[in-house]
UDP-N-acetylglucosamine 2-epimerase (non-hydrolyzing) (Clostridium bovifaecis), 367 residues
Amino acid sequence: MSVFGTRPEAIKMAPLVKELEKTDGIQSVVCVTAQHREMLDQVLTLFSISPDYDLNIMKEKQSLSSITTNVLESLEDIFNKEKPDIVLVHGDTTTTFAASLAAFYNKIKVGHVEAGLRTHDKYFPFPEEMNRKLTGAIADLHFAPTLRNRDNLLKEGILENRIFVTGNTVIDAMNYTIKENYIFDNEILNSVDFNKRVIMVTAHRRENWDKGIENICKALLKIKRNNENVEIIYLVHLNPIVKEIVYKHLQGVDGIHLLSPLDTKDTHNLMKKCYLIMTDSGGIQEEAPHLGKPVLVLRDVTERIEAVEAGTVKIVGTNTGNIVKEANILLNNEEEYYRMSKAVNPYGDGKASIKIVETILKDVVEK
């Protein structure tokens, strides 16, 4: 049984679900919590996934406690009915931790996809760092995207024969979504001149709600005013706190387009067409290197340090002046831009889902 609840989880779990569906010897059951509703549904439609169970837990201004308790209580009956041999969860959401805990309470094996990411600070990112650590303590099979992720798990006492380095399933997903001569579903994007230097922006993390988002917006204003040949596309998260700050500072500014989150196809193909990406998203740090796009990370830390070491990603934080400085380097220094865009993607070959399914067949089905 695969359990997931947010759009990022769904994007990364979708190619794995498709691989499970077509594999002899495996009965694949999908349960979504709908921790995010609208954004989750977009991905399910794209990959033609019809969940067997939909908990539909999303509520306005939902708390972490309510998500956790709702998932725990709802999964109890489903596990009793389905009796899965293994529950697959992804990454570091509250759905991930709660589903893992529910499986543990029912003595069901847990497979953790995208295991081993760490910042070693329990409040950055919050609550993700503890979600993934607690899930790691419960999991029986750890599917680590990289060798560094594996090493993090080994340091925490996870047995080496329980860790499997697979690459990241998000690269698998891009094999489904990237198209040549792509026409966007969002008509505003079809009107954008991609001969200009288009900057794609996403910023929504809880850790940036205080002053971070505001500082990012101020930086975008300066970047646009100082660079005539730049267009900025900000994909504004649906969270009302984020929307209020972004629209207060950027609404109506010429050359800055504020769009609601795009579906996965539009997002991936926008990444392919744009010049530069600025983000606090973890997934984008993995996706962009596959497309040769430099990424400026709008955070003070990242658990995806492999991309930093590879040179495809640079951490710039949320200081307005620093964001402007680093963006201007990539906009005006062709040598630096070329260096970042040509660095090797550290997140695999697009066959992570196959490797995960092969492991499940050997470790769960055959046993």
In short: The chain has a mean pLDDT of 93. Residues 187-342 form a domain with the Rossmann fold fold (CATH 3.40.50.2000).
